[in-house]
Design brief:
Protein name: ORAV1 protein
Order of helices and strands: HHHEE
Structural class: mainly alpha
Shape: rod-shaped
Strand content: 5-15%
Distance between the termini: 82 Å
Number of helices: 3
Mean pLDDT: 85
Radius of gyration: 26 Å
Largest sheet: 2 strands, antiparallel
Strand order of the largest sheet: 1-2
Family: Belongs to the LTO1 family.
Low-confidence stretches: none
Number of strands: 2
Length: 133
């Protein structure tokens, strides 16, 4: 009876062993793939935010010497954008409002570009990042 049990139960045993091996391998590959994806996505967001900050700081410096009301509104909008970027949680990947805050920064950037009469077109490609005016 034991010989027949071994034969009959072999399929179930091999199925269980195969499942365990596949699960372990899939978990290992999934973690590695997740890290690669996270690094790439994080680099894209960092590049985008860095571009916005450089843009805002440059225009802030250019407009500080202007004293008219229109320029002061632009400067306040730029300061708001700079403040939003400086508060952005770069080092906390578990921050639950990351996408929401990123959307607000993008909106503020578009508002600032509109105030400055500049076309904003931020593109991230595999070859280069560019901000065209």
């Amino acid at each position: 009876a034991d010989v027949f049990d071994g034969i009959v139960m072999a399929e179930q045993r091999f199925h269980g062993e195969g499942y365990q091996e596949g699960y372990a391998e899939g978990s290992h590959i999934g973690i590695a793939e997740g890290r690669r994806y996270g690094s790439l996505h994080g680099a894209k967001i960092g590049s985008e935010i860095g571009c916005y900050l450089g843009f805002a700081l440059t225009w802030h410096c250019l407009l500080q010497k202007c004293t008219d009301e229109k320029s002061s509104k632009k400067v306040r909008a730029l300061e708001s954008l700079i403040g939003m970027i400086q508060k952005f949680p770069y080092e906390d990947p578990t921050y639950d409002k990351l996408q929401e805050d990123l959307k607000k920064i993008r909106g503020k950037f578009k508002q600032v570009c509109s105030m400055l009469n500049i076309q904003s077109d931020f593109r991230i490609g595999t070859e280069r990042s560019s901000l065209t005016f």
